[in-house]
Design goal:
Blueprint lengths: L8 E6 L5 H10 L3 E4 L1 H9 L5 E2 H5 L14 H8 L5 H9 L7 E5 L3 H6 L4 H6 L4 H11 L5 E3 L2 H14 L4 H29 L13 E6 L9 E5 L11 E4 L5 H14 L6 E6 L2 E7 L3 H11 L1 H4 L2 E5 L5 H8 L3 E6 L4 H8 L5 E4 L11 E6 L2 E6 L11 E2 L7 H14 L7 E4 L4 E5 L5 H19 L10 E4 L6 H9 L4 E4 L6 H10 L3 E4 L8
Parallel strand pairs: 1-2, 1-4, 2-3, 4-5, 11-12, 12-13, 19-20, 20-21
Antiparallel strand pairs: 6-7, 8-13, 9-10, 9-11, 14-15, 16-21, 17-18, 17-19
Helix pairs in contact: 1-9, 4-8, 8-10, 12-14, 14-15, 17-18, 18-19
């Protein structure tokens, strides 16, 4: 059936009633019989559009508190019967089954019910059975039936009927594919919720679904294609942000902005995170965002050019003026006042994203990485150490000021690619070594960056002098620590656990350093 097919009979049963009354009126005006159930039927009837209850059409009443109302042959036979198969048509006539040419169904709001924290039984009752069955039946028989699972589909069907008197095979195929994707996502949400109820962090079969928010211009490189999908997780960040201004976000913009905002969530005081290529290149806390920006930028002003900036407070004009003074790709924050927005508006290519909140760094969730033939899943790194959990392993214990910097540096470590080395002083990074194949090279790079930053700022000595150093994993040899000592650090934080811990502790004592073990590492490959 390649020609446009008219709609003679339609079954409409929706939870989201956006546009459904207008659609029913449109179909009825063209002579279609409208079948419906429950609240949808009432809404159509109240609008003065003729409608027949499904129970009247089937001759079978709704039973079991409405759990069974469409799961009958008169409905599914009318949907599944092939119009081009004589035996199907004969059986439909024999059993008085009338063809149904269009099914418009969107499902019980299971995801929304779970999101608002409803009780277990309420969630169970919001698992739709008849809806997915009708959707799947209509999608399977796309050669003769059109299926609408979203309000936007109604407008597309309306346009085709107005233009050609019926629906095209191309549209029916497209909507059938969308229908199966919708029921798959619905089942994924249900199975994920059930696994959570059972305490199964990694169930035997894991279903993952996403809703396309944006087809991106390209991926990491221009020859790669990419799309941005929403998982449905209500976590403040790039997926929930409102873009106030600027060009369309790219794959790399989104990836880097997410990295910046997730790092930012670690800090309670006013803080700025500057990210380049998914790695922080400057992080600082301050009395306000403007002072935090100054310290974050000081760490690596070269890398900050063309970077991503994240702030954990409402942006004001003072901070905005400083950020806008250099070329910046994206700025993301919970909010921005009118004066700050006016400053950024002068930079038409700068993207400003406002999220309305901050993500909880300790909230549970899964992190995915694709591999050939499958994917890896792990829990989000929500680990955090405190002063009380630190173990002093050297002769000298760190001072209170050193402890504050050590904890700050170790929080930054979590968001820097391994092998990560962070020099910090005064709650600001002063040198970052990332993504190296060995830890001593990261130590050297971080020290070199602190020297370069000091030179750029006209300061008499490297920024790392008098700083503390954090390592995301243990020092396997003393050489990495000795490199940090040569850079002028006074205290060290690291997970510990190497077979050469005694050697590393001895090197720290020989250098007069204080060192603490966390017992927790933060690898980020």
């Amino acid at each position: 059936m390649t020609q446009a097919l008219p709609i003679r009979r339609a079954l409409l049963s929706v939870s989201d009633k956006t546009g459904i009354v207008e659609f029913a009126r449109f179909l009825a005006a063209r002579g279609a019989e409208i079948l419906s159930t429950g609240g949808t039927a009432q809404a159509i009837r109240d609008a003065g559009v003729p409608v027949k209850d499904v129970s009247e059409h089937t001759g079978f009443p709704e039973i079991l508190d409405g759990r069974v109302k469409t799961l009958v042959p008169q409905v599914h036979g009318g949907i599944l019967g092939r119009r081009d198969e004589a035996s199907h048509l004969a059986q439909m006539e024999q059993h008085a089954i009338a063809p149904i040419d269009l099914v418009a169904v969107n499902l019980y709001p299971f995801e929304a019910t779970v999101a608002k924290g409803a009780a277990f039984e309420d969630c169970i009752e919001n698992i739709d059975i008849g809806g997915p069955a009708m959707i799947r039946s209509a999608a399977k028989n796309f050669s003769g039936v059109v299926v609408c699972t979203e309000p936007a589909h109604l407008a597309r069907v309306t346009a085709e009927i107005e233009a050609a008197g019926g629906t095209s095979l191309a549209l029916r195929k497209e909507l059938a594919a969308a229908a199966y994707a919708r029921t798959a996502a619905y089942d994924a949400a249900i199975s994920g919720w059930f696994a959570g109820q059972l305490g199964q962090d990694f169930p035997p079969r894991l279903a993952v679904a996403g809703l396309l928010r944006q087809t991106l211009r390209y991926g990491e490189n221009p020859h790669q294609q990419a799309g941005f999908y929403l998982s449905g997780e209500s976590r403040a960040g790039v997926a929930t942000a409102r873009q106030v201004q600027g060009k369309e976000l790219s794959y790399n913009n989104l990836n880097d902005t997410d990295a910046a905002y997730e790092c930012l969530a670690e800090f309670d005081k006013p803080a700025i995170v500057i990210v380049k290529h998914a790695n922080p290149c400057g992080v600082a806390e301050g009395a306000d965002l403007a002072s935090a920006w100054d310290q974050a930028l000081l760490c690596d002003p070269v890398s900050a050019f063309g970077g991503i900036v994240a702030a954990n407070r409402k942006l004001d004009a003072a901070a905005a003026e400083k950020i806008a003074a250099i070329f910046t790709e994206v700025v993301i924050a919970p909010d921005a006042d009118e004066a700050a927005q006016a400053v950024f508006a002068k930079k038409k290519n700068l993207r400003l994203l406002l999220t309305g909140g901050l993500p909880d760094p300790a909230a549970p969730g899964l992190f995915f990485k694709s591999v050939a033939g499958g994917f890896l899943a792990q829990s989000r790194d929500g680990g955090r150490v405190t002063a009380e959990t630190l173990k002093v392993v050297t002769k000298r214990a760190p001072t209170e000021a050193e402890i504050a910097d050590l904890l700050f540096a170790f929080r930054v470590c979590k968001h820097v690619k391994s092998n990560a080395i962070i020099y910090a002083k005064g709650l600001a990074t002063v040198g970052i070594g990332a993504g190296q194949m060995n830890r001593v090279e990261s130590s050297r790079i971080a020290a070199w960056k602190s020297e370069a930053a000091a030179k750029a700022a006209g300061l008499p000595e490297p920024l790392a002098r008098g700083s503390v150093v954090a390592s995301d994993a243990f020092f396997p040899f003393a050489d990495g620590l000795e490199t940090a000592a040569a850079a002028g650090v006074t205290a060290v934080i690291q997970p510990g656990g190497s077979i050469r811990d005694a050697e590393v502790i001895a090197a720290a004592d020989a250098a007069g350093l204080a060192m603490v073990f966390t017992g927790m590492r933060h690898f980020r490959h």
